[in-house]
Amino acid sequence: MINMGDKAPDFSLVNTDFKSVRLSDFQGKKRVLLFYPGAFTSVCQKELCAFRDSISMFGKLNAIVLGISVDSPFANKSFKEQNMITFELLSDITREISNTYCGLYNDFAGVEGYNVARRSVFVIDSRGVVTYSWVSEDPAREPEYDKVLEEVEKA
Question: What domains does the chain contain, in order, with CATH numbers?
Fold first, then answer.
């Protein structure tokens, strides 16, 4: 797992338009990575909508937000449209990036073999260093939204 002070590993994932997006595409900006277990789940919907509603504040802090799940681009596209999400949602179908950054909830929701990203938030400064990380053992627990904004401001 990635910790505070680590250099954020670059990655390339597909967005809802089936285009490749790299973390390094946003060099020089602060980056907020939101790993969420699954589209169309109530807590994930609440979390991503909370970030959507605060997106202008992130923009004022020279920060971009990227949501990452193991869902397909098709599911993420529908989820993004239905919830009017204004930031990129990326698909980590292989689970490689999720496993590297935050680990997985195994057998999620009691479904054997269904392994999903742990709910987590990483703030990366403009130099590519992780300045804040929060990884929840409980998929129902939401991040402290004000704390994330404070950490972006400090980054």
Answer: 28-154 (3.40.30.10)
